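hey m, so remember when u said the tokens were messed up on ur end? i reran from scratch. heres the input so u can diff it against urs
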Amino acid sequence: MAAQASVRAKPRVGLSKDRVLRAAIQIADKSGIESLTMRKLAQKLGVEAMTLYYYMTKKDDILDGILDLVVSEIEMPSQGGDWKAALRGSAISAHEVLLRHPWACRLMMSPARIRPGRLRYMESLLKRLREAGFSAEMTHHAYHALDSHILGFTMWEVGYTTGIRELPDSGAALRRDLTLAEYPYLVEHMEEHVTASSGGDGESEFEFGLDLIVDGLEEIRVRPARRAPAPATSSIKTPMTRGTTTRSGWRARTGTPRATRRRRPSC
């Protein structure tokens, strides 16, 4: 600890916290977050590992810092104009940022890493939904629909891309194994993958799903509130009081049979 304190007392000339964090992002982007260590970070910066402790006390501080920087790259929803365009633009920006830094999705989903940058992003999105006219309840649902699409689709895309990179011929091999007679719709689907990868119509699959969500939210927003059904009316105009007797021989409400008067013997 004495050595660490001594190092922390003398910052390296030309080194800063921002430079340390951006070097850490470069390592994570290139080799994955698992490859980020204090030793590798120090080597990239050309300093001793102990020098980094002047700027960061532990690796968790680095992870928190690089996550804040990544989230700061995301475009916040604009606070004026069309709310659908604002949400759409912000969601596409988030998707693009997370594709540039594919390791960040997992960190963003950790409850232990809800950092100030993430909080500001969440607040701006919730504010835009409320100002668009959504109730607190619908804002809750809308936020989670958007957030799960951004994070979930990005993680799916990253995983799919990584798998293709590791097994570049897997798609062609699968297409060879599929017979049109046995899997006609799957073969058709595989052909659509080839078409989409070669350019398609310019709209990404992420945007297709995003538009379904946003258009669905708009439909809910303008839908008139449903009125509660009117209470059923009783066909009995005058309610019976407890203990009154009906002609059918049953006591109202109590459900007990009416006592029958015995006839006196005739003889």
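this time it looks ok to me. The domain at 2-57 is CATH 1.10.10.60 (Arc Repressor Mutant, subunit A). if urs says something different then somethings off w ur setup not the seq
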